[in-house]
Amino acid sequence: MQNTDPLITYEYCSEEAKAKIEAIKLMVRWLYGMKINTLIVLPENQHEVIASNTLKLLKTILSTGGDLNEQNLGGTSLERAHLRLAAALGILKIASNDAITSVSSNGDNTSNFQNPSTTLSIMSAEQWHSLATVLLDSEEFVREKFLIKLHKGLMSLALGLEFLAILSLGGTFNGEDTVAFKTKLRSRLTNEFLAILSLGGTFNGEDTVAFKTKLRSYLLLNLAKRRELIKSKSVANMKSIMPDCVMPYVIHLLAYMPFYIKYDDVSQLEIIKDCLWFIMEPLVLKNEHYSFSFFKKTFENIKVCVDRVSQSQEADPNFPTTNQMATMTNYKIYCGCDLALGLVMSKTQNFLLKDFPVQPSLPSKYFTVSASASDNNLKCYLPTEMQFAPPKRCGLEAEILGKITKSFPQSPSIPPPQRGRPSKASQQQMQQMKQQIVVITGENVIEEGTNSFYMIIKQLMERIAPIMVDHQGLLTLFNYVSDSLLNDGELDSEMGVDNSAKRGLQLIYSLSSVFPALFHGREIFTTYLLPFLWQSGDQHQVSELILQILTNIGASAGAEGGMDDSECVSIPWWAADDVIPRLVDRFVLKASTSKQAKYAIQCLNAIIGDENEKMRIFGEIIDQIKASGLSLETSPYFRSHLVTLGMIAICGGHSFFPKVLRSIIQKFIVQGLLMKDMKTEHEINALEESERQRENTDPLITYEYCSEEAKAKIEAIKLMVRWLYG
């Protein structure tokens, strides 16, 4: 299978897999709806419990490679890949919500403490580590789609520095040595991470070089975005977006990656060095505000701390093996710091100890000061062959650098962790370190950003609009689309253009996003948009575009039809007759695609102004969905119904129907779908064989090859995320 379009690979999935994917989306939308809607029904701690449980479920899907029950009945490799992708995107959506809404109460950049973000507090370090490994997934479409969503969240500042650190894994992709990398990596992975990565899949030199190039371009765009905000001084809490502050997260993340098992293994350290330099290069070489002293102090601060994630296990005398693993994790962190500092000194020429806008700080979620690490900056934990020689300088610089790096030529033996009560001198030294080291308690994003590509297009169109775009010109464009869509398409044959209707509608959709006020008058609705919608037939993309256009226009055209104000209080005039019942019946209850259901609910949410009327319609939809049966066996529209429930949760439904939605999630989604595997091992093997014979691995195409069970599970994951998101 050579095509990696997600829409194509999705069609290869079974109905079971598709249903599971939609179930994941439903859960996320449900959670998302709970957080963004203003009518809070559940106490805040219950929100956190639900969010925590959902994140645990999504992390389990990742850690088991998409086979939730671990009985090899979770579907084909393609279906499991789509489930992993749905779970990863669900985690990103949940995390992005609170990263925006959590605002620091203290705008002082020198403050030692900041208010933690709710989601990042609920999200465990293990969940963060598992999420990062999706960037190393063997399926190309999983890596590509995850990277696109990650980049989108970072560019909009919906995701913070924890997630920017994930881009450092771009250093693992090396086209010249991919085969050797796969062999080494496979031999070192635990069973859990083998399930995540499914190595032996689609890695090849050419693909990884292109993917690494894309990763690098995304990284540079994100750094530029954050630096622009810092220059504008429009952000109160600079620590939350300062790209130079990402290194503590990078060091901690790499220490837990599956390709880094031994702290003194040279081949593993080479991979870590590549990852470090991948993200550090634009920070130290292409940064006018680069400060050597800032990076030096950051790495020194980390080395006098211990890993907080494993600290409690390390202190437990009943588990000596766990203690040893926790100590190994600390050594891996210290080796990462030595490597990073060595890279700074060996690849740069600027060692000026100048001031930096913020002081070095560490996230308290991952690091804590320890007396046992008080003298770590006098040691080098790297093996001899990985150590860096100090740069040759003269005068004052040489004296300063000599003090910094004099321990590098020596590699003292690593002492065992100190046990028992620390001495009085150690306690005093530890107290001094606590006063010097700034440990921040969370990461908050103050300002929600925008899509820069979209904004450029919007600005260009706004400049063109007064001259080129008018109502009459819009009607002419509609007429061309109508000729292609509803008539014999004579214009298409004359112009020699295929599928001009779709292209014209895409242009109209773009115009409706920027200039919704241009869409006024009866003719646009009664002659074009509504006939296009009802006569779209099997042209699903046409109906999806029309629904999005109507959503963009919303109720702005309500008074343009010459109706009295009393007739358009709740809904626009063009939807006053039987439009809403027909739309609900055809594109919600009997939707041909999941996107039709998604866009139809968004359209209803946009055009119905009265909240009570909107929730009355949503309530009727929920009742009819429950009556049709929420299972693959009883409902032919099960997948689209999962999408509908998730979108209703996002659009305020959770506040009005909390018990109903929660019951559906727990009974039908988690227990009746995600935790239930319907296919036999023989059926899975037969599907695997048919997958190998296909040449297309495009995610959009291969999704359609999934079984209905797999599709339903994917939609179920989305539903949960949407529910939580709402």
TrEMBL record:
Region ranges (Disordered): 407-428
The cross-references to Pfam families, in alphabetical order and at most eight, read: PDS5
Please give the name of this protein. Uncharacterized protein
Its taxonomic path starts at: Eukaryota, Metazoa, Ecdysozoa, Arthropoda, Chelicerata
